[in-house]
Design brief:
It is built from 2 helices and 2 strands; from the N terminus they run ββαα. By secondary structure, it is an alpha+beta fold. The two termini are 21 Å apart. One of its GO terms (molecular function) is metal ion binding. InterPro entries: 4Fe4S_Fe-S-bd (IPR017896), 4Fe4S_Fe_S_CS (IPR017900), PSI_iron-sulfur_center (IPR050157), YfhL-like (IPR047927). Keywords: 4Fe-4S, Electron transport, Iron, Iron-sulfur, Metal-binding, Repeat, Transport.
Length: 82
Amino acid sequence: MALMITDECINCDVCEPECPNGAISAGEEIYIIDPNLCTECVGHYAEPQCQLVCPVDCIPLDPERRETQEELMAKYQLITAA
């Protein structure tokens, strides 16, 4: 499942450069994650890097975007093949 950024985001700018897929960008009020690019760092790291650096713990799994490890890996392969 993709990750999401909640409204607890303080716009600290630490998550965006950590995303290996470029899925995180500045939104109108807070940072946002493009679920089509988010692989939870599958294929790159053992853990989502944005979650590790977030000082306010506002990056949970998105319950609307359930994906298996296999689906995340397939997405990673598609993104990196381009």
